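Archive record:
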Amino acid sequence: MIQELSNNEIFSNEYRNIAPKAGDLAAVFEKNGRNLLMRLDAEGAMSLPEAVLFADYWFDPEDTEADKKAAEKGGRLVYLFSIGTTCYYSFVYTDGPAPDFSFTGMEFLPFSFESKPLPKNIYFGAETAFQLSSWYNGNRHCGRCGGHMSVHPKMRCVRCTSCGNMDFPRVMPAVTIAVENGDKLLMIRYRPREEDGYAGTSLIAGFIEVGETIEDAVRREVMEEAGLKVSNIRYYKSQPWGFASNLMIGVICDLDGSDKIAVHDTNEVAEAVWIPRDEIQVYDNGVSLTFEMIAKYKNGEL
């Protein structure tokens, strides 16, 4: 999967508010959008701009005028994490017009889990950066009093300049579920989703709700989306999924009782069907836990 980095490089999410150096990268997303500032070659391999190009937007953690300067410039560069020796940064916008980034020689292009994961480490960096960038840019105002949220100079959080409320990134756990029925796998087709337009065939998946265990979430989601009961719930693998701020938890379970499908959540699911192993269509570009599980079931490895 995409988080399994090449060349044995290490992902480190320790927060370090350090100035960008040569070779560091900036994963800059369009203001209020999913498009990424990048360049694609003929094979679909992505290049990100070097972070040092945005040096004028990075402010020393001791700079007491940082908020004022960021407001004047339309935003600031923030440190995110490192992969190997490469540090990744992103851009936090302020209210008002977005800066013109044409000086990078790159443009905002669509970026999603269906993009080619080339190079793998940069793709993972961009995907994880999207999660943090979305969180920063979605928390410019305090949810408690409506005041202005300031990027904390020494922690990965934002702090209200009026009431002092502090907000930290959140990870939302979700399950992706392989329901087995002998030599058949339960597959569903989603209706187009507002957040990303996805309407493909996949496994049942959903968020773990407040007060639920993983097992409770599995039973509820399968009942909602297919009207089926399951048992023998077992863990497969997990995956950070920055596109939706998820921690995806892959589970396998068995049909328990009748195999008659009755979709309850028709707003989300167009249809659910049992597909024999030899008829399963595999699409696995090395990114998604869900598609890995489908491929492994197809090959008798799940």
